[in-house]
DNA sequence: CGGTATCCCCGAAGATACTG
DNA sequence: CAGTATCTTCGGGGATACCG
């Protein structure tokens, strides 16, 4: 919990039902408006989208740019700092993908759920 | 969500209030008995310890060895497969540690909580 | 358009008790 | 010693309504 337990921190920042999807969208889509994000993520509510974006913004992972217009226009993108997460996300992605295969080997693919 | 979203899978496996601590203990301590784990993790209940260990065992990350004795003796350790998570955990740990410093730069260290 | 405010529900996690 | 069973609590997340 003291010196070598900081991977919990990383975990906490990535946790949240929608954070993975949001990160993925921004990594793939570059700069996106609030409504674009919402449309690209079916089933997410404004509340959750705004909330998760705030948290990512607080951690300097996502950048928020407000255009003082009427109607409002707000754009989101990965920050430079946030992009440094990419290798980790990539490593987790690779491990996750291979793990699914590993579970198949262990239990067979005829499972209904994980 | 289809091909490149598997880092959610990794996330899900690591999530759970106690999994990080348990993993850390096993990585540091090698093979440990149930009661050793419980004593080394203050505040965890038997229920949670058993439950989280079951999940890690299901994913082949932790090995469970039962000695048919009275009173019972059960030992837990990282599986060979589970040890392959180490680089990821290490990377997450490093990022987490440096991120804490990053937050300090951004907001100062005089915060009450994250 | 891009939010916030409010209310509600459900599942993860805690407390406690019992068992082979 | 190493669990499981049962009940309860708490907060993340969903639905809905309203606002600048």
How would you describe what is shown here?
The structure is a homodimer of 114-residue chains. Chain A has 114 residues and is an alpha+beta fold. The first copy, chain A, has a single domain (7-107), classed as Winged helix-like DNA-binding domain superfamily/Winged helix DNA-binding domain (Arc Repressor Mutant, subunit A, Orthogonal Bundle). The first copy, chain A, contains six helices and three strands; from the N terminus they run ααβααββαα. Chain A has helices at 7-14, 19-29, 34-40, 46-58, 80-83, 86-107; strands spanning 32-33, 62-67, 73-78. In chain A, strands 1-3-2 form a three-stranded antiparallel sheet. In chain A, a hairpin with a 5-residue loop joins strand 2 (62-67) and strand 3 (73-78). Chain A is elongated and about 55 Å long. Chain A starts with 6 loop residues before the first helix and ends in a 7-residue tail after the last helix. The mean pLDDT of chain A is 92. The interface between A and B is large, with 38 and 39 residues. The structure holds a DNA duplex (20 and 20 nucleotides).
């Amino acid at each position: 919990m003291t010196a070598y337990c900081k991977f919990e921190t990383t975990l906490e920042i990535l946790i949240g039902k929608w954070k993975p999807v949001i990160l993925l969208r921004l990594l793939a889509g570059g700069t996106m408006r609030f409504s674009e994000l919402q449309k690209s993520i079916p089933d997410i509510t404004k509340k959750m989208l705004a909330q998760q974006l705030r948290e990512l913004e607080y951690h300097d992972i996502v950048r928020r740019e407000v255009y003082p217009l009427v109607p409002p226009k707000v754009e989101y993108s990965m920050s430079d700092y946030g992009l440094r997460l990419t290798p980790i996300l990539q490593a987790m992605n690779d491990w996750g993908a291979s793990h699914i295969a590993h579970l198949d080997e262990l239990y067979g693919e005829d499972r209904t759920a994980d």
